[in-house]
Amino acid sequence: MTRILGIESTCDETAASVVADGFDVCSNAVASQAELHAKYRGVVPEIASRAHIENILPVIREAMQIAGVSFDQIDAISVAHRPGLIGSLLIGVTAAKTLAWSLGKPLIGIDHVHAHLYSVVLENNVQPPMPAVGLVCSGGHTALYEINDWLEVRLIGSTIDDAVGEAYDKVAAILGLGYPGGPIVDRLAATGNPKAIRFPRTLLDRESLDFSFSGLKTAVLYHVRGVPKRGEDVKTESNPPMNEHELADIAASFQAACIDVIAEKLMRAARRISARSIIVGGGVSANRGLRARLAEFPLPVHFPPLAYCTDNAAMSAGLAHVYFVGQQFSPLNLDAITFSQFRD
C-alpha cells in the first residue's frame, strides 16, 4: 500500500488528505474560508493568505489523525503548487517542502487543474475509457482538455473572459442571493422555469471549443435593472422588487443557458478527438442541473463524488500516486506558480 499526504492551498480552502494507492481516501480535512470572504462577494487574496497560515498545521494534523497513520507511514508528500493565488500557494508549498525535507520523503508537485480531472478516480477507482474529453469548470477555470492518459493531457479550449463559476457568483450578486453563488443559484433554479427568459448562448465560431460567459452575465444584469440608454451607465441601485418565483425563473433560465453552452462544447470536443468518455471536475461539477443534462449525453460521463468537486487535497494526493509509481518526483526548490502547466 502506498500512502501519500496531500496539501492544498491554491485559493481559499486549506486542505490536507491521506490517500492510499491513488484512490482510497483515508482522510479529507478542509478548512473553508467562505465566511471570511462572503461580505466581499469574492476571495480577498490577503485575507486568504493569512487564514492559510493559521489553518495549515491544524488541518495537516487533522488529516493524519483521521487517517490513523503516523508520518513514518507516509510514502510521499504532494502539494498543489500551481495555478492559484501566489500568497495562498506559498503557504502550502512551504509546508509541503518542509515536511518532505524533515521526513526524508519524496515531494510531488501537482497542477491543481490536472488534479480536478483526476478526482473522478477517488473512492471507486473509476478509470474512464480514453481518449477522453476533460472539462474543468469552477470559479476560476472553464477549460476543455484532451486526455489520452493521466499524464498526457492537452488543453483544447478555455474561457476568453469569465469562468462559469465566476458567472454564477456574479449573477448571484446581481440578484442579491449571497456568496458563493453557485450552490444558491443551482438550488433556486430547481424551482424555476428554464424557458421563462431566453438568455443568449454564446458559442463563438462554429467549431470553437472556447467559452464566453460575460455576455450572459450582462444579459441577466440588463434583464434585472434595464438596458441603459445611449451614454448612460447601467443602473447600480438596488433591484426592482422581485418575488421568489421571478428570482427562480431568472436563475433557471441563466443556468439553462450555461448548461446548453457546456453541452454543445463537450459534443464538439468529443467529435474532434473521437472521445470514448467525458470527465468533469471542479466546483461546478456538483451542479445538479449540469449532472442531469449530461446524464443524457451519448458518451459515458464521469463526475467526482460530491465531496471532491470543490477544492480539496485528496485529488492532488490521488494524482500524485501516478507520479509516484513512475518515480517522477519534484525538487525541494519547487516553486509556487500562478498559472497552469496546460497552456496554449
Q: Could you provide a short overview of the structure?
A:
Helices cover 39% and strands 18% of the residues. It has 344 residues and is α/β, with parallel strands linked by helices. The protein has a five-stranded mixed beta sheet with strand order 3-2-1-4-5, with helices on both faces.
Question: Could you explain the architecture of this structure?
Answer:
The protein has 344 residues and is an alpha/beta fold. It folds into 2 domains: 3-121 and 308-325, ATPase, nucleotide binding domain (Nucleotidyltransferase, domain 5, 2-Layer Sandwich), CATH 3.30.420; 132-304, 2-Layer Sandwich (Nucleotidyltransferase, domain 5), CATH 3.30.420.40. It has 10 helices and 10 strands. It has helices spanning 34-38, 45-67, 86-103, 112-118, 164-174, 181-189, 214-225, 244-273, 288-294, 314-325; strands at residues 3-8, 13-20, 24-32, 76-82, 107-111, 132-137, 142-149, 152-158, 277-281, 301-302. The strands form 2 sheets. A 5-stranded mixed beta sheet has the order 3-2-1-4-5, with helices on both faces. Strands 8-7-6-9-10 form a 5-stranded mixed beta sheet, with helices on both faces. Strand 9 (277-281), helix 9 (288-294) and strand 10 (301-302) form a beta-alpha-beta unit. Helix 2 packs parallel to helix 3 (86-103) and helix 4 packs across helix 10. The model has no long low-confidence stretch (mean pLDDT 95).
